[in-house]
Design brief:
It catalyses: O-phospho-L-seryl-[protein] + H2O = L-seryl-[protein] + phosphate. It is an enzyme of class 3 (hydrolase). The chain is an alpha+beta fold. The protein has 5 domains: 145 residues, 2-Layer Sandwich (Beta-Lactamase), CATH 3.30.450; 102 residues, Beta-Lactamase, CATH 3.30.450.20; 167 residues, GAF domain (Beta-Lactamase, 2-Layer Sandwich), CATH 3.30.450; 217 residues, Phosphatase 2c, domain 1 (4-Layer Sandwich); 106 residues, Heat Shock Protein 90. The chain is built from 23 helices and 34 strands. It has a 6-stranded antiparallel β-sheet with strand order 3-2-1-6-5-4, with helices on both faces. Strands 14-13-12-17-16-15 form a 6-stranded antiparallel β-sheet, with helices on both faces. Strand 32 and strand 33 form a beta hairpin. Helix 9 packs antiparallel against helix 10, helix 9 packs parallel to helix 14 and helix 21 packs antiparallel against helix 22. It is elongated. The N and C termini lie far apart (83 Å). 39% of the residues are buried.
Length: 846
């Protein structure tokens, strides 16, 4: 059976093994590795104490009955006393020049014990560590732990040399001072008291004279670089200890100021109560972890590229180009930290589907962002300011684990004493971080942070425009019954990069929604300001309940009254989701586009009026269009369909072709397909897409006009009871009657004019609405005295309702309450309310 460890035999292997074996405390220590010839384990290095009268063979056959071959094949450590040794063949290979290592005795002395530990894992077996001691029972539990840690240390040295040998053409470059000084020591730490026993080699590594060591662990921690202390302390926390075969690399600063790499392997032993009791560990010189020429060149290239990056996006793209390929990472994200949100400047790969939900849920523009509070682990890393590395399978929140299931690196980007951003690097396959990688990433983080600050200073106008634009557009679009709406916004890449394009989705009453898209003339902060005012005004007019043409007429008069010469185009859609009827109003804007359920597309013929802000007496006619379930409605601004090199007609044909080819199952991907891949834009681009699915179960409604009579509340309760019984709602009937009583009483007592009661039953909710002619919203009292005879109505409504509130209507308002229904309560009867009692005055059912 042949084993291949993947690297050539060199003097470097002997250099590693010779320097790391000096602290085992044994009479004889050796390392065997697979020979270039198949089927043989050869002696790479042997270290023995003075006066040892025996040695070990130069090689062992893999198929033989030696302890070395047995441990290598099985992957299990052997601890052999004199009696167990007698069962093995210890003479080595037949052709060995030293067939009798026991000084002519033919067998080891009777007081010798032998430990044989395999090096490496089952996938890549590197060899065996052999420890011989002159005692019949030399390996107690603590010593076995330490020797296993030493074996891991030796394996790490061999793996590091293997990587260097594979990467270097000059073999002599491996024999520098880094490998020549490799050595190790052992320590024992009592966790309860912090008292520590460390051998002379550990103290030498930390630069502490034996007579000056006070046996306090704090003395060693004082020499550790502050950035590495949190990782060092985490190993005594539950679940914090690195897994078997992994090492923790730290940097210490010696008294002369020299910075030095050390590698640490340890085990925490628990007491009878399960609490951590002692730590056993080995520390070794890790000079071989110094940056290679390749790593230094990466930092140099990154530094040179960042010097020429003048915008935040340029900086982010340089980071991706410099790190993703050398680190073989699948994902790289760079985000700025603004208040409580991460504003992403670059995601690579750029496809939204390659990233977890939090990083693409607000993918409305070139500024996707995510909330800090949704990822507390990431927020904690930014507070600490230290690079964090998570191995495969780490327990992270889904939005972080999805970036790097095989390993995740988080780099806080520091500059001027604060954290200005974060870089996330994720691997799909299992990725184990080497100490040199941590050093590289730490150096990179500092460079990128400084570059971000420089880009902010050099691009202040762009950043101001970006913040203004982002604050004026909706952060999220609402969830809609019977459809899905998504929006995309891309700023112009020329000039100040701020314009007047906007979009909005407005939930209205009675199962209706409004969709708006518009464009204010020009590219300036003034255009963006007018855009924000127009968006707010149209939303307010729509929520008040005005018809679409009235909403646009009011917006036109508002813009004419502003102190501006700018005009705006707009397309407004009022959609009845239940019926699928849409009313369009167009004010100088591009016509809407439809994708029909069969995949065909059409440009809607919508009669239009002039742009807003042009004529005070302008008319804005309505166009009614029926939408079938499965229809996609696309509203866009002219930046997508027209440019200096693209006529409008050709641009609309291109958009229609993309609309026809896209899959409507994912509205977000469809909107991305409409944007195309253009990188340079002379104008802003806004797209609003609605996929109309229709209502599976239409809400059922009933209305009652409340007459102002002494027993008006009683009649309203009777109407409500009849209606709910006909609908099959029984469990929540008492709650609904109480809410109706309080809302009707308030309307009659505190308003004048008509009062109307509206009942709406949806799949899982009952909505009670009471309309009156007063525009004043009800005010819930902060407290009610026990002796008061009123003032508790709204408190009762709040207590009984899943939600409640007030919305303005034309000249008045509606106070509403929603009551959650039990899962079993569904529409149980098609009878009209009051069928058993005959018709009642004031009833209207539909």
């Amino acid at each position: 059976m042949a084993y291949d460890d993947g690297f050539r035999r060199t003097e470097a292997v002997q250099a590693v093994t010779a320097r790391v074996l000096g602290s085992t405390g044994a009479e004889l220590t050796a390392v065997y590795v697979p020979a270039e010839a198949d089927g043989v384990l050869q002696l790479a290095e042997m270290v023995g104490g003075s006066g040892v009268p025996y040695g070990l063979p130069m090689s062992y056959p893999l198929s033989g009955n030696s302890p070395v071959a047995t441990a290598f094949r099985s992957g299990t450590a052997l601890w052999l006393g004199p009696a167990e040794l007698a069962e093995y063949d210890l003479t080595g290979a037949a052709d060995s020049a030293d067939t009798d290592p026991w000084d002519g005795a033919g067998k080891p002395p009777a007081d010798v014990s032998l430990g044989v530990l395999p090096l490496g894992g089952s996938v890549r077996r590197l060899g065996c560590l052999v420890v011989m001691d002159k005692a019949t029972d030399a390996f107690d539990a603590d010593r076995r732990h330490l020797l296993e840690l030493h074996a891991d240390q030796v394996a790490a040295g061999l793996e590091a040399v293997a990587a260097r040998v594979m990467a270097q053409t000059e073999r002599r470059s491996l024999l520098g001072p880094g490998l020549d000084t490799l050595r190790g020591g052992a320590f024992t730490l009592i966790l309860r008291t912090g008292r520590m026993d460390a051998d002379a080699q550990v103290l030498e590594l930390f630069g502490i004279a034996p007579e000056e060591f006070d046996r306090r662990v704090e003395t060693l921690l004082e020499r550790t670089v502050p950035d590495d202390v949190p990782a060092l302390m985490s190993i005594v926390e539950p679940g914090g200890l690195p897994g078997s075969g992994q090492q923790l690399s730290i940097r210490i600063r010696r008294p002369n100021g020299e910075l030095h790499w050390l590698s640490l392997r340890c085990r925490v032993l628990v007491g009878a109560d399960g609490a951590p009791e002692r730590m056993l560990g080995v520390v070794a010189d890790a000079s071989y972890l110094r940056p290679t020429a390749d790593e230094v060149s990466i930092v140099q290239r990154l530094s040179a590229a960042l010097a020429g990056a003048t915008t935040i996006r340029d900086v982010s793209r340089v980071v991706v180009a410099a790190l993703r390929a050398p680190l073989a990472a699948e994902r790289v994200a760079v985000a700025e930290l603004e208040a409580d949100r991460f504003v992403v400047s670059v995601l690579d790969p750029p496809e939204p589907g390659a990233w977890p939900a939090a990083w693409r849920s607000d993918w409305r523009s070139e500024w996707p962002d995510a909330a800090c509070h949704s990822m507390p682990t990431l927020e904690s890393v930014l507070r600490s300011g230290h690079v964090a590395l998570w191995p495969p399978g780490a327990a992270l929140e889904a939005d972080l684990a999805g970036i790097g299931p095989g390993g995740l690196a988080v780099l806080p980007l520091p500059a001027e004493g604060r954290i200005v951003g974060v870089c996330l690097i994720g691997w799909e396959e299992d990725h184990h971080f080497g100490p040199e990688e941590r050093s590289l990433l730490t150096a990179t983080a500092g460079l990128v942070g400084q570059a971000l600050v420089r880009a902010h200073a050099m691009d202040a106008g762009h950043e101001l425009a970006t913040m203004l634009q982002r604050s004026l557009l909706p952060r999220k679009l609402p969830s809609l019954p019977g459809g899905v709406a998504v929006a995309r916004y891309l700023p112009a890449t020329m000039g100040l990069e701020v314009g007047g394009d906007w979009y909005d989705v407005i939930p209205l009453s009675d199962g209706r929604i409004a969709l708006v898209i518009g464009d204010v003339e020009g590219h300036s902060a003034g255009a963006a300001t007018i855009m924000g005012q127009m968006r707010t005004a149209i939303r307010a007019y729509a929520v008040e309940g005005h018809p679409p043409d009235v909403v646009i007429a009011h917006a036109n008069r508002l813009l004419l009254g502003m102190e501006t010469d700018l005009f705006a185009t707009c397309c407004y859609v009022d959609l009845d989701v239940e019926e699928g009827i849409a009313w369009f109003v167009r004010a100088g804007h591009l016509p809407p586009l439809l994708r029909l359920p069969d995949g065909g597309t059409e440009e809607l013929v919508v009669e239009g009026g002039p742009p807003l802000g042009v004529a005070e007496d302008a008319e804005f006619p309505l166009t009614e269009v029926g939408l079938a379930p499965g229809t996609v409605l696309a509203l866009l601004t002219d930046g997508l369909a027209e440019s200096a090199s693209l006529p409008l007609e050709d641009g609309l044909r291109r958009v229609r072709a993309a609309l026809a080819a896209a899959d409507p199952a994912d509205a977000g991907e469809l909107a991305d397909a409409l944007l195309g891949g253009a990188k340079r834009r002379d104008d802003d681009v806004a797209v609003l897409v609605l996929r109309y699915d229709g209502m599976r179960v239409r809400p059922t409604r009933a209305r009652w006009t409340v007459w102002r009579l002494p027993d008006a509340v009683m009649h309203a309760r009777r109407f409500t009871g009849r209606t709910l019984r006909s609908w099959g709602v029984t469990e929540e009937q008492d709650v609904a009657l109480l809410v109706v009583s309080e809302l009707v009483t308030n309307a009659i007592a505190h308003t004048q004019g008509e009062v109307r009661l509206d009942l709406t039953l949806s799949a899982d909710r009952l909505r009670v609405g009471v309309n009156d002619a007063s525009p004043r919203s009800p005010v819930k009292p902060a407290s009610v005295d026990w002796e008061s005879t009123g003032g508790r109505g709204l408190l009762l409504v709040e207590a009984m309702s899943a939600s409640w509130g007030s919305v303005p209507l034309s000249g008045g308002k509606q106070v509403w309450s929603e009551i959650a229904l039990e899962p079993g309560e569904r529409l149980g009867s098609a009878e009209s309310p009051g069928a058993a009692d005959g018709p009642r005055s004031g009833e209207e059912v539909r």
